[in-house]
Request: fold
Amino acid sequence: MRGDGMEATDRMTVLVTGGAGYIGSHAVLALRDAGRPAVVIDNLVTGFRWAVPEDVPFVEGNVADMDLVGRIIAEHDIGAIMHFAGSVVVPESVVDPLKYYRNNTAASRALIEAAVAGGVRHFIFSSTAATYGIPEAIPVTEDAPQRPINPYGMSKLMTEAMLADVAAAHPLNYCALRYFNVAGADPQGRSGQSTAGATHLIKIAAEAACGKRGHVAIFGTDYATPDGTGVRDYIHVSDLAEAHLRALDTLMAEPTRSHRLNCGYGRGFSVREVLDAVDRLTNRTIERRLEPRRAGDPDALVADNRAAIATLGWTPRRDDLDTIVRDALAWERGLK
Ligand code: UDP
Reply:
């Protein structure tokens, strides 16, 4: 025994839901790179089997399947869950809200119940800046009002609420990480954003730069921002994955405390700035088409990330738009 608690930390097996998806697969890589045991459950609806390394145990199934999750928890002696599985397309959530309350809220409820029943002590949840809706002030702090403007944000906020109540009633603590705009790809090229039908700006711009689409639409040029286009806080997916590892250590170090933390860099870039970066890095010019605003888009969304940095001891290492775009481009070029 080393007596510093690290032995238990290193050995605790983490169940990663949605580990074959975009962000989840990067978390699996981060756990594996750190020598920490993980098991993945994914239904492969939007994820890819190849995104999970062969030496990481993989179960194809649904997180709402409490019997299955219960068996995994018991068999692998799961101590913590990182919960990425869910549906993530905001406009789809508007036309099919019940899909979001099923795949996000109801599935999370079942998963949390299985976690409590199985004695899982720590739960890390993929929440979102969409829980804030249209923020009153920028940068957004964690105590800003949470008033989602779409079912996606509401489905995630409801899970945050369940976790708060469950943590008060049972021996489980949680960390809800509220992601801002996640982009980029594994710098070693092992994973990246691969799901078809992309809607996110950097992915779309990378597709355009690789000749997979003819132009990029700029949705709105009359926002209250310096160049009139929407401003967002883009965070590199590998830095976000690292935040999950730090969150796990933080939950283990103080098992009676839970956290809700923003994950972003605290700096925003406009749509035009993103497209200019892509052009600069490719020596080409993406065709821009000016289009009307997309419904429900706030002018600017930038994280106050001081709490995450202080609480988690998290050090963002790729806080640079060009690095994010370069990694997204490298991944996109390798995709068929
Ligand atoms: N955007 C755009 N064209 C696109 C996709 C996005 O102009 O093809 C803008 C969008 O209006 C927002 C920003 O880019 O201001 C980021 O949008 P994205 O869909 O990537 O993420 P969101 O912030 O909506 O979660």
About this structure: The pocket of uridine-5'-diphosphate is lined by residues 181, 199-201, 204, 216-220, 230, 232, 271, 294, 297 (CB under 6 Å). The two ends are 50 Å apart (CA to CA).
